Amino acid sequence: MISSLAVLPPFILLDQLLQSWLLEDIGRGDHTTQSLLSQGKIQRQAKWIAKTPGVIAGLPIAARVFQLLDENISFQIHANEGEYCQQGQVITQMYGSLDALLMGERVALNLAMRLSGIATLSRQYAEKIADLPTKFVDTRKTTPGLRILEKYATQVGGAINHRMGLDDAVMIKDNHIAAAGGIAEAISRIRERIPYPLTIEVETETLEQVQAAIDHRADIIMLDNMPLDMMREAVQMIRSVDMRIKIEASGNITLESIRAVAETGVDYISSSAPVTQSKWLDLSMKIQ
User: Fold this and answer.
1) Distance between CA atoms of 79 and 77, rounded to whole angstroms?
2) Which of 63, 112, 119, 232 could pair with 75 as two cysteines, CB 3.0-4.6 Å apart?
3) What angle do CA 247, 120, 168 make, to 5 degrees?
4) Which residues are annotated as a binding site?
5) Are 11-119+279-287 and 128-277 in the same CATH fold?
6) Smallest Cα–Cα separation from 269: which of 208, 233, 222, 226?
């Protein structure tokens, strides 16, 4: 069983996103709800049901969506973040003004379904190597505007976050190497200019590039799209020189291949699949 160490982003950061998404959906007003409920406030109870099994993520965020519309809405969560829920399971119940429940329904459900789908596929990847020391890591291949939430969802599923943005760490990729004229030149020029706490990661595709990254003291060496035999040799090269260098494998990682990659001895395996290939988990809201 994978335990979730996810940390919910603070609402001082999330509220502006949630408010903008509510404004996008409501526009100049919810003509259906406001016309139907023009006689005054009506209080109702509602519940969310999982229509397909999967890992739940995003319920505290969904609760916040409704509370931005009406701070008096009661939102009772019956499934913890990271819990695997069965089809037909009631995952939350809420009580409050019917207009707020109806106006917030789509934004709240969309977010929870998207995040739960990501958490579900992240769990499948993480569980494949749960008994090995290698850790499963996400990437920056995220939806613009949703990165902080999508990366939260991968954590809920059992993954570890890679850098959140370009300012978190240095990653020297193939295009940077080409622009600099080689790994040696790229590392030297970057190391002179970056703040001292930042780590330097280098993407490598050949054993020659691995050796160059070792020689110029990269903190993390990524083995990108390497065959397993070459990856094992690269791991041995790195470990024989400096056990402190972290090793990451990446490129076309699948549920079928991830365990074999982990068995080469790498520290991390990164993949965008939980974000780019996951299906939304089907959830529905029913008014009582």
Assistant:
1) 6
2) 63
3) 40
4) 106, 139-141, 163, 173, 203, 224, 250-252, 271-273
5) no
6) 222
Q: Which residues pair with 74 in a beta bridge?
A: 95
What is the residue extent of each domain of the chain?
Answer: 11-119+279-287, 128-277
How far does Cα 77 stand from its chain's mean position? Answer: 22
Element containing residue 165 per DSSP (H, E): none
Give kind and range of the element (H or E) at residue 126. Answer: helix 98-128
Q: Which residues are annotated as a binding site for substrate?
A: 106, 139-141, 163, 173, 203, 224, 250-252, 271-273
Tell me the pLDDT band of 40, cut-offs 50, 70 and 90: low
What is the distance between the alpha carbons of residues 248 and 134, in angstroms, rounded to a whole number? 9
Q: Find residue 45's DSSP bridge partners.
A: 95
- For residue 52, what are the CA distances in angstroms to 5, 32, 39, 142? 24, 29, 37, 24
Give the Cα separation of 256 and 228 in Å (integer): 14
Amino acid letter for position 228: L
Who's near 280: CB < 8 A, 6+ residues apart? 113, 114, 116, 117
| Beta carbons within 10 angstroms of residue 121's beta carbon | 25
pLDDT in tens, 79-94: 999 999 999 999 999 9
Q: Model's pTM, two decimal places?
A: 0.94
Distance of CA 82 to CAs 36, 85, 277, Å? 37, 9, 19
What region does 252 belong to: left with phi over 0, alpha with psi -120 to 50, or beta? left
- 11-119+279-287 in CATH: which number? 3.90.1170.20
The CATH code of the domain at 128-277 is 3.20.20.70
Q: Which of 263, 265, 278, 267 is nearest to 128 (CA)?
A: 263
For residue 91, which of 153, 46, 48 has the smallest C-alpha distance?
48
* Cβ pair 284, 48 in contact under 8 A: yes
* Side chain identity at residue 181, one-letter code: G
